[in-house]
Amino acid sequence: MSAERLQQARHLLAGQGLVVTADAAGLNQELLAIRAGLEDFERLRGLANELKALGFSYITLELDTED
Predict the structure, then answer these.
(1) In angstroms, rounded to a whole number, what is the distance separating the alpha carbons of residues 43 and 65?
(2) Exposed/middle/buried for 32, CB within 10 Å: 0-12, 13-18, 19+?
(3) Residue 67's pLDDT is what?
(4) pLDDT tens column, 1-60
(5) Angle, nearest 10°, between helix axes 2-15 and 41-53?
(6) What pLDDT is attached to residue 1?
(7) By CB atoms within 10 Å of each CB, which of 12, 44, 47, 60 scores lowest?
(8) How far is CA 12 from the centre of its chain?
């Protein structure tokens, strides 16, 4: 189930045109870790409820500061 949730999350993000890295973490893979640029923050924030609906308890964002 965890791999399926992660795949669904990646599909959702890609479907919104977001080029980000997403991985599951935590003991039960309950955390979705997303690495993205600051310019994607608002769009990701708008998807938080949809991502949580996939079964993730937490969504973290690592901002990519490389130019």
Answers:
(1) 17
(2) buried
(3) 57
(4) 578 999 999 999 999 999 999 999 988 889 999 999 999 999 999 999 999 999 999 999
(5) 140
(6) 56
(7) 60
(8) 9
pLDDT at 27: 82
| Phi/psi of residue 59, nearest 5 degrees | -125, 125
Which residue in the block uniquely carries the two structure tokens 């893979």? 29
More confident site: 57 or 66? 57
| Residue indicated by tokens 């964002």 | 61
SS3 assignment, position 41: helix
Largest CA distance in the chain: 36
**Amino acid letter, residue 42:** E
